[in-house]
Description:
- The chain has helices at residues 20-34, 112-115; strands at 38-39, 56-58, 74-78, 81-85, 92-95, 100-105, 108-111.
- Strand 3 and strand 4 (81-85) form a beta hairpin.
- The chain is globular.
- By secondary structure, it is of the alpha+beta class.
Amino acid sequence: MTDVTAKLSLPVMMPAQAQKHVTHNEALELLDLIVQLTLESDQAAIAPPSPQEGQSWGIGVGATGVWAGRDGMIASWRGGGWLFVNPAEGWTAWCKSDLTLKVYSGGSWQPLAALAP
Length: 117
């Protein structure tokens, strides 16, 4: 049995696991981030100085500082720290910086309209 779900990589509780609430809360945090995903920007390279709880950014190429080495990931400010998640092909997000619905495709966030046949 694997310790994460196949599609969203949510942690699962294992038999005889101690502190099951930790695993459960981690899964809830990930769901809260992924479901109805809203990005402040999809190409951010520098972490904002004063993020608000629950805000998320798509990290662009050449990220620096605390986001260095996290290019292409989603960074979300949760509980006083950064939670990083790798987006999967087909995820959708509302991008606040350009008021566009985007789809993660081919390793980057693309406007939904650009993917239509």
